Amino acid sequence: MKKVLLIIFFCGTLLTIGHSAYAQNSGFGVGAIINSPTGISAKAWINEDFAIDGAFSFQVGTGISQTYLHVNALQHHQTNNQQLKFYYGLGSRFLWNDLTNDVTAGIRVPGGISYAINNTKLESFFEIAPTIDFTPITRFGFEGAVGLRIYLN
Questions:
Q1: Per DSSP, which regions of 7-152 are E strands?
Q2: How many domains are contained in the chain?
Q3: What angle do CA 97, 101, 103 make, to 5 degrees?
Q4: Under a CB-based contact definition with an 8 Å cutoff, are residues 80 and 63 in contact?
Q5: Could you give the C-alpha distances from 3 to 122, 148, 152, in angstroms and in order?
Q6: Could you say which of 3, 42, 90, 99 would form a disulfide bridge with 64 (CB–CB 3.0 to 4.6 Å)?
Q7: For the domain that residue 23 is a member of, what is the CATH number?
């Protein structure tokens, strides 16, 4: 429950801060990502259609903690709606847990939709990413998340 309240507070703060500017497809954005993983998200635009994004999370449970990181290269495609973009890409993911002291490493192929919220520096997004892990065992899976970023420039 504390995690949900913290995320709601964080997103509300982003909405308040970003109210008076305009979203863009340049610069650097930072925000929250929820589901798989739940943590901090960042995105840096290289040009109008290409960006690098990533997410970091740290989770603590009874007898276990884990750290998650992914980094993606993303190609974006504009739709008829100037605020809506589709994207896809390729990236890597790493997960470490202290219970088994294993590092899971693999690739992810994210695809999603980003929406630049009118008259703000905010971008919301939804993505799903098939994953293939190579260590410590080979396995296939899916990640999916929603998020919100504010652009700092």
A1: 28-35, 39-45, 50-61, 64-78, 84-97, 102-108, 111-116, 122-135, 139-151
A2: 1
A3: 70
A4: no
A5: 22, 16, 24
A6: 99
A7: 2.40.160.20
What's the rounded mean pLDDT across residues 141-153? 94
Measured in degrees and rounded to the nearest 5, phi and psi for residue 131 equal -130, 150
- Is the CB of residue 151 less than 8 Å from the CB of residue 27? yes
**Sequence-ordered list of residues with C-beta below 8 angstroms from that of 3, at least 6 positions apart, any chain:** 38
Asked if residue 118 lies in contact with residue 109, where contact means CB atoms within 8 angstroms, the answer is no
Distance, in Å, from the CA atom of 151 to the CA atom of 18, rounded to the nearest integer, reads 8
Cα gap 95→147, rounded to integer Å: 20
Residue 117: name the closest of 39, 48, 47, 20 by CA: 20
CA distance 153 to 151: 6
By the 8 A CB rule, do 40 and 29 touch?
no
Residue 53 to residue 129: CA distance in whole angstroms: 13
Is 9 a residue whose pLDDT tops 60?
Answer: no
Q: Which residue has the higher pLDDT, 145 or 23?
A: 145
Inform me whether the pLDDT recorded for 52 exceeds 60. yes
For residue 81, which amino acid is it?
Answer: N
